[in-house]
Structure formats: C-alpha cells, structure tokens
Amino acid sequence: MSVPSTHPTSSARLEAALGRIADPDRQGSLVFTEIYAEDARAAAAASDRRAAAGRPLGPLDGRIVSVKALFDVAGDTTAAGSAILRDRPAARCDARAVARLRAAGAVIVGRTHMTEFAFSAVGLNPHLGNPGNPRNRSRVPGGSSSGAVISVVDGMAEIAVGSDTGGSLRIPAALSGAVGFKPSSGRLPAEGAFPLSSTLDVIGPIAATVADAALLDAVLADTVSGEESLTPTPLAGQSFLVPRGRLFDGVEPAVSDAFENALDRLRAAGAHIADGSIEAELDALADLDRIGVFTAIELAATLADLGIASLDGIDPKTRARIEAGGKTPAADYVRMQRRRAGLISLMDERLSRQPVLLLPTVPLTAPAIADTAEDAAFHRINMALLRNTRVANLFDLPAISLPVPAAGLPVGLMAMGRRGSDRSLLGIAAGMEAALA
Q: Most buried residue, 45, 165, 314, 437, by CB count within 10 Å?
C-alpha cells in the first residue's frame, strides 16, 4: 500500500484501510486482535493538520501502521496470542517502539494476529482462529507475524511492526509476498514486547517496499537525522555469496526456479555472484542445537516469572516444547550462551571476506492449512520454514526477505549481511529490489 507523491490525506487513507479491515473477504476480524479506529482517526486528523500547516513530524507522519499483538499498548492486556495471558493486568504504558511510532506521527490502526507466544513459523493459532494467506486463503500466511503481513499485503496498513526470533518477519514476508527485515540484535527497542527469547528476539518491519521497511527501521532506531531516506546501492560490482549446501536441501522446484531466475536478474544488473560454503559455521551451529533450544528454555522461564504454574490451556504443540525447555539444566544453558558467542565471532570473521549471503528465505511455498492439521506434519513444516531464516538469529546477522518474480505462489529471496551492517544491507536490498522489479 504505497503512498504516491500526491497521495490522499492520512484520514482518507485510514478510512480506506478501515474499510478493508471490515471487508469479510479479507478476514479483518482474524487479522487484528484489536482495532483502534477512533484513536487512529484522531491521530490521522492531527497529522493532516500538521501537513496543511507545513509542519509534519517527519516521513512517517500520517502513515498507517499496525503492531503485532505482543507489543504493549497502554490500557490493553498483552496476551501475545495466548489464552492463558488474557487475564493479565492491562499495560500501564506503551511499548517503547509504540511510543516512538506515536512520537513520529504514525497512525496506529490496531494490533495484529500472531501465533501463540510467537512460537511457530506457520502462522496459525487455535485460540484466535486462522487467517489465510492473502495470496490464497486456503494456505498458511507464515508466522509468527501472520497478521502483520496480511495487514500490509491486503492494504489494511501501510507498514507493520512485528518481531523475529527465528524468522518471524521474513517467513511470512516470503510466503505472502512482502518485504520483511530482521535487524541486528539491539538495534531496535524491544522493551514492552512480550519475550519469546531474550537472547534471540528482535523487532522489525514488514512492508510493501524496502524503502518503507528502511523508514520504519530508522524511526524506531531513533537514528541521526537523514537516515530515514534510503539511496539504493548500485549492483554493478557488488559481490554476493550463495552458500550452497544443506540450506538448499529439499528446496521445492518452484522456489529453486524463482531463486535462480532472480540471481540471473541480479547478474544482469552487474552483480558478481559466486557459489560458496558456510558448512563449517553450520556445523558449529548444529553443535549448539544438540545442547538445547533458547526459545523453549527462555519462554519457560518467562512464564514461571509471571507465576504461571499450570500450562493447561496452551496449544499442545507449543506446550510440549515449553515443558522440555523448562527441564534443561542450567549448566547447559550457560554452555549454549558461550557457544553462541563463539558462533557470532565465527560468522563475523567469515563475512569479513564476503559480506552478503543470498539464499531462498524458505525452501517451500505456502503449505495448505489443511496439510498442517496433524502434529507430525505441523512440526515438519514448521522446522522446514525455520531452517534457513534461523541462521541469521543464531549468528546475529541482519537479514531481509524480498519477493521475487514467481509463476505461482510467492517466493522470497533472503540477503544476510555482516553483524551491524543494517543500513548498508538495506541499501543493497533496495538495489536488488529495483533489479527484480
């Protein structure tokens, strides 16, 4: 939902978005857990007054933004997609990211659907209902930021704010045809967002374009003036590494064809693309995985801190993983933290030579919702969706998923950069986006 230079007022665009939310064919009642229509109308009207007076707060002023249901909004309970958190006290103040959005003049239209505790890549939630993929309602949207991506693709918001622990921004972007950006750890403020994993969680944008994703990144990072605008990096002479190996195992033909065709377009734009390997680094990651899983361990600890003694009422698929995490010895958790620190250093050294990796965001197109009904199939699909994206979280790399031309369902191409190279990666992604258009 792009805004042209002679765009309608914020109020007009908001009313169009609210109309789409109310459209039953778009499943707005499933996409949003809360809709802030009157507050949004007041914010849009205030933005229009500033625009008329020539005093906008910045480039985000008046833009329509949705926020994932794990962010605190003052006066509302943050249930993070779980039935067992619905009776918690209402938040006393906005999450820091929400406060920055308001300060920048953003119009927050509502909070969006997510998987329970953000603990699934599929995008389904037995407590809230299952909104379908905006490109094909019978298929999964991807998660855990499922409502976020649907809100953008279906024109219910212009930009969405979500979270990413193992791919939760990039997976729905790839499956539903949007841009999803995972920043480096610590770049954007996570205070006031319900944590799945304090070690791996980051927040970030889903948008229709790289420029909009970069705008939200800059505003939330509260960076120096001028970083809100993004100049695409020319691809001529730009070097990329394609890490052939296990991350390409089992890739669907439709995904493989679209990915290879995208590489050809990037080469035609002047990019230098070489095949290579990060198998040694992935071996080190596999060693960490054999010890334990950060998400399960840290979510179990969070729920214990909230005084939740019984896990009755949690989706059984999720409950089993939390219970396993809660039994992990403390010594193993310490070992995991130390191993991850080594992983980060290892990959940083690897990327000092070739700083941008390209690979399919996920190895498959959006599965049918019906195909995830059985537990074994659900877990198999969930792990397949997470396989490539989680690499960026464990090694703390900025990563972005871009939609690429495809014959059928959406396909995503993921670029991963060196730790801390967020704005550089966004500039390169904008250059790639132009070449793939």
A: 165
- Of 68, 120, 145, 163, which is the active-site residue? 68
Domain boundaries, the chain: 10-221
Res 309: pLDDT: 85
Q: Compute the mean pLDDT over every residue in the chain, rounded to the nearest whole number.
A: 95
Q: What are the start-end ranges of the E strands in 174-264? A: 179-182, 202-207, 239-243
Contacts of 372 (CB under 8 A, 6+ apart): 122, 124, 140, 378, 381
Q: What is the pLDDT of residue 7?
A: 75
- Token pair 């890739």 in the structure block, residue: 251
The total number of residues written for the chain in this structure: 437
Q: Which residues of 109-143 are buried (b: 16+ CB within 10 A; e: fewer)?
A: bbbbbbbbbbbbbbbbbeebebbbbbbbeebbbbb
Does 144 qualify as catalytic in the annotation? yes
Nearest Cα to 213, choosing from 143, 161, 144? 161
**What is the spatial distance between Cα 425 and Cα 417, in angstroms, rounded to a whole number?**
6
Instruction: Check residue 227 and give its pLDDT.
Output: 61
pLDDT of residue 224: 47
* C-alpha dihedral sign at 275, 393, 232, 350: negative
For the chain, residues with pLDDT lower than 50 are 1-5, 224
Over the stretch 308-326, which tens digit does the pLDDT of each residue have? Answer: 989 999 999 999 999 999 9
Q: Which CATH class is domain 10-221?
A: alpha beta
Write out the two tokens for 99: 């406060």
Q: Measured over all CA atoms, what is the biggest interatomic distance in the chain, rounded to whole angstroms?
A: 61
Is 185 considered catalytic here?
Answer: no
Tell me the CB-side half-sphere exposure of residue 239, using CA atoms within 13 A. Answer: 8
Q: Could you tell me which residues come within 8 angstroms of residue 343 by beta carbon, excluding any fewer than 6 positions away?
A: 281, 284, 285, 288, 394, 395
Q: Output the pTM of the full model.
A: 0.96
pLDDT of residue 2: 41
Which position among 168, 185, 401, 421 bears the catalytic label? 168
Q: Facing residues of 242 across strands?
A: 275
Selection from 65, 26, 28, 23 nearest residue 44 by Cα? 65
The pLDDT, as a whole number, for residue 6 is 60
| pLDDT of 3 | 45
Q: Of 10, 11, 144, 401, which one is the catalytic site residue?
A: 144
Residue 407 per-residue DSSP state: S
